[in-house]
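Appendix B, record 7
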Amino acid sequence: MILEICKAFLTFSIHFLQVSQLILLSGGDANALTSYHNQSSILMMCCREGYLDMVTLLLQYGADINATTSTGMTALSHA
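Structure tokens (predicted):
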């Protein structure tokens, strides 16, 4: 049972990454802000949650590593 859950999660993660890449290829904003944690960027949220593949993808598409929230937090602060 646990093996099936792990396989399902891995499949979901791969598709999530592929969909994210398609959005970025179509002109999606790698620096888009969220309404969470004082308007954190998507990069900051991925750093916060430990989504390393997404962090790499966002950086490849020009995400600003030095962007700050309304309170001065950066992606590194969230990591």
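Remarks on this record: The chain has four helices and no strands. The CA atoms of residues 34 and 44 lie 9 Å apart.
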